[in-house]
Amino acid sequence: xxxxxxxxxxNNWILIPALLLVPPLGLLIVYMRRGVKTAAGATVALxxxxxxxxxxxESGDKESTAYVMCQEFVESRLKSPSSAEFPWKSEIKVKSxxxxxxxxxxxxxxxxxxxxxxxxxxxxxxxxxxxxxxxxIGLSL
Length: 141
Fold this sequence. Notes:
This protein is α+β, with helices and mostly antiparallel strands. The chain has helices spanning about 5-10, 15-20, 25-35, 40-55, 60-75, and strands at about 95, 100-110, 115-130, 135-140. The protein has five helices and four strands; from the N terminus they run H-H-H-H-H-E-E-E-E. The longest helix is centred in the middle third of the chain and has 17 residues, at about 60-75. The protein is elongated, with a radius of gyration of 24 Å. The termini are far apart.
């Protein structure tokens, strides 16, 4: 190993965990650190990363988003939307009906017409239309 290589490893030892744990990301870092800033090199590393680790649209992500969207739809039907308090996601049930449709059952604590806090159970069915678009299929409150 020549002096230049030894210096490179001394300055970039932190890359070893990245190369082992996240190979495509580590490859991208190596490309950028070594000055190989070609679009092809970056594209290859990004494509490898996406192929290995997914695009970020995992079912858990969609389930969480379905829960948040249902919160918005429920709030729109409440007498006092600003008083709404929803539980943590761990306290509700989200069921995937197919790749893009989810059923969420849970509860919300909110003020009624008389100003008293009451707990209301709900079942919400939403469909993911792509991008940031979600469609309300049904809501019982």
